[in-house]
């Protein structure tokens, strides 16, 4: 099996794989991996950025912006329940989501929680191998869309995951999360489609997601989003 097939199988069976030893083009492997999902009937719903905040770069020891793809199979209903048995070693993080409007503009903004799950053993990877693994993308939950007010960009974040509580700020995302849609279009190599979601990247370090947790992200002026795990 090639790397995309091994990553896809790891994702479907929740069994981690070793770091690749072959040479590969990271975004080409990611494209092959996403193609396998699309061939099974999944639909692209947007893109996600990674390592946009210093908290995440420091947590993972990786220092460059990365882009992954979102599909409808990754979307979880707001307030919904996620079965952790589907994943290898899932983690959760609070994010801001942007809805792409006409011509790559921002049509709306929402609080979001992303679930990441490295398909590699011990959640360890290089920059290249995490890109190939669709930047650990696993699932995402969106809160209610709000009108986009570009003046409100540096907003307080309160993130609770089980007993863990973290405070952050959306200003930690790229130094200014209003850059997220343009950065995503740059890394995607072209304009983003109207109606797509852009997850701008975590505002804090990620927390492990274990069964029986209640996860909430509250973002000033944007409201909150919640998820339960079993
Ligand atoms: O930490 C990872 O496994 C890669 C993903 C990073 C992000 O999604 C992020 O920094 O927001």
UniProtKB/TrEMBL annotation:
Domain of life: Bacteria
Record-linked Gene3D superfamilies: Fumarylacetoacetase-like, C-terminal domain
E.C. number(s) listed in UniProt: 4.1.1.77
MF-aspect GO terms: 2-oxopent-4-enoate hydratase activity; 4-oxalocrotonate decarboxylase activity
Key word Lyase present: yes
InterPro entries: Fumarylacetoacetase_C_sf, Hydratase-Decarb/MhpD_sf
UniProt signal peptide: none
Lineage of the species this protein comes from: Bacteria, Bacillati, Actinomycetota, Actinomycetes, Streptosporangiales
Protein name: 2-oxo-3-hexenedioate decarboxylase
GO cellular component: cytoplasm
